[in-house]
Design goal:
The protein is about 80% helix and about 0% strand. By secondary structure, it is mostly helical.
Length: about 400
């Protein structure tokens, strides 16, 4: 009698296993026919049942079904609404991801590859959706919120072999850490990205700034060299590298960079005036004053009806104002360091008079900047000093009042 009962139990178990296997097949058929709620219900049951939950096929289908739900939520709102599924789409996406990973893990343990390619393709679709969602949060500057989302995308995109999404999500992650003040994590990610030859310009700039802040000048310069190599079209990085060479006194390398910048400016129309200002700034800092003035004026000569040229004219005018301002300050410093004596008094007066001339020359350029950017603090502060030096009392009072009003806002 006991043997009969045992046989009946085995037969019952066989029916149960077959039923669950049928649920897996039914789930797939439902998905193919857009009966997505039924597909989800059947595959959820199969993922929990003892007879099917250890089969990579079950989890492969689960990944597909949940990915299909994500896709339909974006492409066919009417069909998705018809399913009456209340689970948030982000959760559906993550469920798909985890199911795919489980299927891959099971196949790896069993040394089989039946579903690997299909699983990777599904993973690539889902990770793009996850990145787009995370990137929107990042763009809204909700950095703390987007960090775990981006960390997940970095991990999954690496598994999926999607290098583009991997690099983009890692770049956003590094910038997010920087934005919330976790500089060490940000710098570590920046360095990894530079080694991986990222084409995100901001990564090189931020790592350059971080290295320079730590007084690691050689490292800072090497970061820019890597950036110029990996993004040869980036005149911004090339301009920063030029400035770094000038600051280090390596005028020979700075001149080579300037030649390259000029060749870029000669071959383009868009952003031409911006590049000319970058060159002018480098020449100014290298104390090549006449060349710098010529380059600023060349930038200003570009048709201001072009939006890019119009915005860059402000930078060119500020650059010229700063050039004459700095020359005036240099004359003051020289005058202050003269020894006492009759000849020195003559030289002192000459230097003081020359400084006034240079301060006066800077005024129209700074005032042109204010005409476009009336609340620019740097320009207002420069003019305040100039008006004080030249004893332009009324203008000094006006600028001082403007600065005070901006501070109290």
């Amino acid at each position: 009698m006991k043997r009969v009962i045992f046989l009946v139990a085995l037969i019952a178990f066989g029916f149960s296993a077959t039923a669950q296997t049928m649920k897996v097949q039914s789930a797939y058929a439902d998905m193919k026919n857009n009966r997505l709620a039924n597909a989800k219900k059947n595959i959820d049951a199969a993922c929990e049942n003892e007879s099917t939950k250890n089969d990579p096929k079950t989890w492969h289908y689960a990944g597909l079904i949940y990915a299909k739900l994500v896709e339909v939520s974006k492409t066919d709102a009417k069909l998705f609404k018809k399913q009456k599924i209340e689970t948030p789409v982000l959760v559906l996406a993550e469920t798909s991801t985890q199911a795919i990973l489980k299927s891959i893990e099971m196949e790896k343990a069993a040394n089989t590859i039946e579903y690997v390619n299909a699983n990777i393709n599904t993973l690539k679709y889902i990770v793009i959706f996850q990145f787009d969602t995370a990137f929107k949060v990042f763009s809204d500057r909700k950095y703390q919120e987007c960090i775990p989302m981006l960390e997940n995308v970095v991990k999954i995109s690496q598994i999926a072999g999607d290098k583009e999404i991997y690099m983009k999500s890692k770049a956003c992650l590094s910038l997010s850490y920087d934005a919330i003040g976790q500089k060490d994590k940000a710098v570590e990610l920046y360095r990894n990205l530079v080694k991986e030859k990222t084409t995100e310009e901001s990564i090189y700039i931020n790592l350059f700034i971080a290295n320079k802040k730590e007084k690691e000048i050689e490292k800072a310069t090497n970061v820019l060299k890597a950036g110029v190599k990996n993004i040869p079209s980036s005149y911004t990085l090339l301009g920063l590298l030029t400035g770094a060479y000038v600051e280090a006194g390596n005028i020979e390398e700075a001149d080579k960079c300037i030649v390259t910048l000029k060749s870029i400016a000669d071959t383009i129309s868009q952003n031409k005036s911006t590049i000319l200002v970058i060159i002018a700034n480098s020449l100014r800092d290298a104390n090549k004053i006449d060349d710098a003035i010529a380059m600023y004026n060349q930038s200003l000569s570009i048709d201001p009806s072009q939006n890019e040229a119009l915005s860059t004219q402000t930078n060119a005018n500020f650059g010229l104002g700063a050039l004459y301002f700095n020359m005036a300050v240099d004359q003051l410093d020289k005058a202050a360091n003269l020894p006492v004596g009759e000849e020195s008094d003559k030289e002192y007066n000459r230097l003081m008079e020359d400084s006034k001339v240079k301060f006066s020359q800077s005024i129209p350029y700074f005032e042109k900047v204010l005409a476009k950017k009336p609340n620019d603090i740097a320009t207002l502060n420069q003019l305040k000093i100039i008006y004080s030096r030249l004893q332009m009392t009324e203008k000094y009072k006006e600028i001082s009042a403007k600065l005070e009003s901006l501070r109290t806002k």
